[in-house]
Amino acid sequence: MTSELPISLILLIVTLIIAVVTVLYVAIAERQRRETFQRVSPDLEASRLAERLLLNEDATASSRLAAWLRERMPEGFLADTSYAGKLVHAGFDGSAAPVIFAALRIVSALLVPVLAFVAAPRDNPTWLAIAVVMGLVAGVAGPQAVLDRLATNRQDRIRRAVPDALDLLVVCVEAGVSLDAAIIRVARDLSNVRPELALEFAQVVRRVNAGMPRERALQGLAARTGVDELRTLVSSMVQTERLGTSIARVLRVNAESLRLRRRQKAEKRAAEAALKMIFPLALFLLPALLAVIVGPAAITVARELGNLAN
């Protein structure tokens, strides 16, 4: 009976994982289908799309869940704000995000070691202890590692979208459009291609319309994304607004410098590829080549030495 219990639990866990993956796949596919329909639909007006970008919709379900968790969680986890910046960089800037992430940390720290204990072999205490310790480490460090990865990926997507957005801003500003209207136009045009940067631009305009100074709104853009290119761009735009110089020239210069920096980074990675290939070649390819080339000769020499000794 005891031997059948872990197998049934493992089957239950695998079934739950398959169900969760299926639900996520269906949700992602439905979102992509909806975005494709919005992109090709002729009935989608520009005003509706701009309104959708500028609205800060509050997820009522997540807010209720956060309120329920806030009443039942320890104060120490809620007081820890060291990961709040990473949550914003990853795109989770709602008020419910820190509470939900703290709850996920607790669940992961408790559930992963239990799953490791259930899945580990019971006849070997050493492997059982190793599995529990590894599960504990993964449960504690896993959520933070996933959050760091999500933040890094989002920052990379925003970083790749900045030069294109600057080109659109230059075109709009040189056509005589105000900066706020140009940012709205760029956010609308990039909503399907670069949704992260489009939503951040929409946040800037929404805050300016709410009465926040444009300087603070732009600085908030750099703080929310954590992208160095945007921080440099915001500094240039703020300085330009203070001095009254041409904003189009600043945007064009920043776009060219960002493309040059991206090209230099690609060249740097290409130059480092040869150096990084040395270690895999030395560890895996060269021993095999030596065995193929020197092996027959070594066997022949050993055979001849054996004949001479006889």
- Chain oligomer state: single chain
Regions with little confidence, pLDDT below 50 for 5+ residues: 1-5, 40-59
Number of strands: 0
Beta-sheet strand percentage? Answer: under 5%
Q: How many discrete domains?
A: 4
The chain-level structural class is: mainly alpha
Number of helices: 13
Write structural notes for this entry.
The chain is an all-alpha fold. It folds into 4 domains: 1-42; 43-156, no CATH class; 159-274; 284-309. It is 84% helix and 0% strand. The chain contains 13 helices and no strands. Helix 3 crosses helix 6 and helix 10 (214-225) packs antiparallel against helix 11 (228-243). The longest helix is centred in the middle third of the chain and has 50 residues, at 125-174. The radius of gyration is 28 Å and the shape is flat. Mean pLDDT is 77; it is low at 1-5 and 40-59.
Key descriptive features of the protein:
4 domains, flat, mainly alpha, disordered N terminus, 310 residues
Layout of SSEs?
Elements: H1 4-40, H2 46-54, H3 60-72, H4 75-79, H5 84-89, H6 97-119, H7 125-174, H8 179-189, H9 195-209, H10 214-225, H11 228-243, H12 247-276, H13 278-309
Summarize this structure briefly:
The protein has 13 helices and no strands. The chain is mainly α. The radius of gyration is 28 Å and the shape is flat.
